Sequence to fold (186 residues):
Amino acid sequence: MRIASILVLLAFSGMLGAAVAQSDDLAAAGAALRTGDVEAAAAAIDRHLAAKPADERGRFLKGVILSEQGRTSEAFDVFFALTVDHPELAEPYNNIAVIYASRGEYERARDALQSAIRANPEYAVAYENLGDVYARLAARAYQKSLDLDAGNRTVRAKLALARELPDATPKRAPASAPASPPSPPR
Fold:
C-alpha cells in the first residue's frame, strides 16, 4: 500500500521517469554483475548512486562490485558506512566479515558475523560463515598445540579436519541467475 502511494505521488510530481531510470540503473547493475560484466555494473551503479546517494540497496551493490573488482579496502569502507547508517542490516556486517577473513583476521570476522546475527537472527549465510570462521580459529589453536607438542597424534588429526571443514562444499547443480534486481539488504 505504501509503495503504491509513493508511485502515485511520483507520477503527479513528474518524477516517475527519473525514478524508473534510477530503478533501471540498479537493475542494470545487478544484471551486469550476474553476467560477469563488472565494469558495466560499476557504471550503472554509479549512475544510480549519483541520483540516489543514500540508497542502501545501491550502496550495498556498490560494495559488492568493488569487492569483485578486487578493491576490498574501498568495499570495506562502503560496507562499514552502511553499518553506521543502517545498523539493522545484516548483509554489510557479513561482507565485512568476509573481507576480514580473507585477511586472516578471524577474530574480527567473528565479531562482524555476530553483529550480522544480532541484526538478523534468521540470516543463514552469517551462521554458515561463522562456522567457517570458528573452524579457522580452531585450526589455529590446534596448530599452536601441535607446535608445543609435535607428537600429539590426536591434535594432528583434529588439525587436519579443521583445515578441511571451511572448504568442504557438496557438489551442486549450477543455480540460474535471478531475473529481478538484487533484493534490498535486510
